[in-house]
Amino acid sequence: MDFRNSDTITGPRTEDILPTTATAAVKVVIVGGFGVGKTTMVGSVSEIRPLTTEETMTQAGVGVDDNVGVESKTATTVAMDFGRISISEELILYLFGTPGQERFWFLWNGLFEGALGAVVLIDTRRLEVSFDVIGRLEERGVPFVVAVNTFPDAPKHPVEALRSALDLPDEVPMIDCDARLRASSRDVLMTLMRYLHSLAVPLG
Ligand SMILES: Nc1nc2c(ncn2[C@@H]2O[C@H](COP(=O)(O)OP(=O)(O)OP(=O)(O)O)[C@@H](O)[C@H]2O)c(=O)[nH]1
Ligand SMILES: [Mg+2]
Hints:
The chain has 204 residues and is of the alpha/beta class. Helices cover 26% and strands 23% of the residues. It contains 5 helices and 10 strands; from the N terminus they run E-E-H-E-E-E-E-E-H-E-H-E-H-E-H. The chain has helices at residues 38-45, 108-112, 128-140, 159-166, 182-200, and strands at residues 2-3, 24-31, 51-52, 54-56, 75-77, 81-86, 91-97, 117-122, 144-149, 174-177. It has a 6-stranded mixed beta sheet with strand order 6-7-2-8-9-10, sandwiched between helices. A two-stranded antiparallel ribbon has the order 1-3. Helix 3 (128-140) links the parallel strand 8 and strand 9. The structure holds guanosine-5'-triphosphate and magnesium ion. Keywords: GTP-binding, Hydrolase, Nucleotide-binding.
């Protein structure tokens, strides 16, 4: 377990302290198949030092972990990512990134407890790694938005084709993003918050 960008931990930094104006906190889970950019997204958008649990991938994972298409990846999340972002002076989001490797999916149960919504990150080069993820969210009844992470060599599909490939209902928002960029990751979270709000407001 590791606090990125830190050598010694000497106590909370000013930016780690929860603003006194905060009155509501929402738990959001960032989910997706192996290597779609979950840890990257939590790290780019978090205003506190993200907690990561990345471990080096070794030969022992060959044949167990599915790294097809992301062979250059050298580390993988083995438990969770954690970060925090203030959406407004009052509203704080707590972000939990899930592990992508299927052998760690049993951890999802704890990570989803109390979650109000989820972001499903997808990589259009490897759409198939997202099918099970979306199915599991639907089983749990957790509302989610889909964020298409833009890798440079990823094929561009029309939104309707993507929706149909993922069998996504029309009302589920879909947005392009670059998980490395704070503003882009923040837009994704704002889309989720707007969607959750629309679900909470009773129709006319
Ligand atoms: N070009 C590009 N690269 C990205 C983007 N997001 C992530 N990456 C890279 O893709 C790789 C995988 O990202 P991670 O954030 O580790 O993916 P993950 O979903 O947490 O992976 P697991 O925890 O192993 O499932 C890293 O090398 C990132 O630098 C993106 O939006 N664009
Ligand atoms: Mg990760």
